[in-house]
Amino acid sequence: MTRTQRYKDILKYFADNVPVAESELEFSSPYELIVAVILSAQCTDKRVNATTPALFAKYPDVQALAAAEPGEVYELIKSISYPNNKAKNLVAMARKVVSDFGGEIPSTVEEIMSLPGAGRKTANVVTSILYKEPVIAVDTHVFRVARRLGLSEGDTPRAVELELEANIPEETRPIAHHWLLLHGRYVCTSQKPKCGECALKEWCKSYPITK
């Protein structure tokens, strides 16, 4: 099977069978989304969703967070992975948004990457969800699934991102990120992937995965 055919068949399966695929992070504004995405680095969405209600109750907007001290934020997110760094980054991010972007979460990948704590993955997630930008965020799930399926042989997240974007139509990229992420989270897991129940096994280059 050619890679082009593999892309075509896998994308068709998802389009036919998973017409709705969205972020599992809970948010109600661009501000809440970028905070949640920064917190989600090396942390589960479930844990983030359990933590953000108290954080957003105390700091309901970017201006309120910009006026906070990292130590205050730390107390509300200390159950999250790397709370010290994330508390510092969240406050610094908010202050830069207020000072450089008029209190509005920026809309381009480059602008978001200029914010403390926001790398390419965060920027791609935020712009894809909020603005339907034709980018694909590559987290650990997307990286693993793309390589196992045979959609990419890239050995870095950036290499996988570029290959996915070269083969997935622009209009499909925002949802394709969630297709691959959720498939990795619930089926093609890092340990003991559920190959027996995987609907993609006929196109998977790695099937069966034995580890």
Topology (elements, then pairings):
Layout (H helix, E strand, L loop, with lengths): L2 H15 L12 H10 L5 H14 L3 H5 L3 H8 L5 H19 L7 H5 L6 H12 L8 H10 L7 H11 L5 H14 L25
Helix pairs in contact: 2-8, 5-6, 9-10, 9-11
General shape: elongated
What's the CATH H-level homologous superfamily of the largest domain?
Hypothetical protein, domain 2
In angstroms, what is the radius of gyration? 18 Å
Helix content: 55-70%
How many E strands? Answer: 0
Give the low-pLDDT segments.
none
CATH architecture designation of the largest domain: Orthogonal Bundle
Give the integer mean of the pLDDT values.
96
Mind describing the biggest β-sheet? none
What class do helices, strands and sheet pairing give? mainly alpha
CATH class of the largest domain: Mainly Alpha
Instruction: Give the count of helical stretches.
Output: 11
CATH topology of the largest domain, by name, is Endonuclease III, domain 1
Report, as a whole number of angstroms, the end-to-end distance. 24 Å
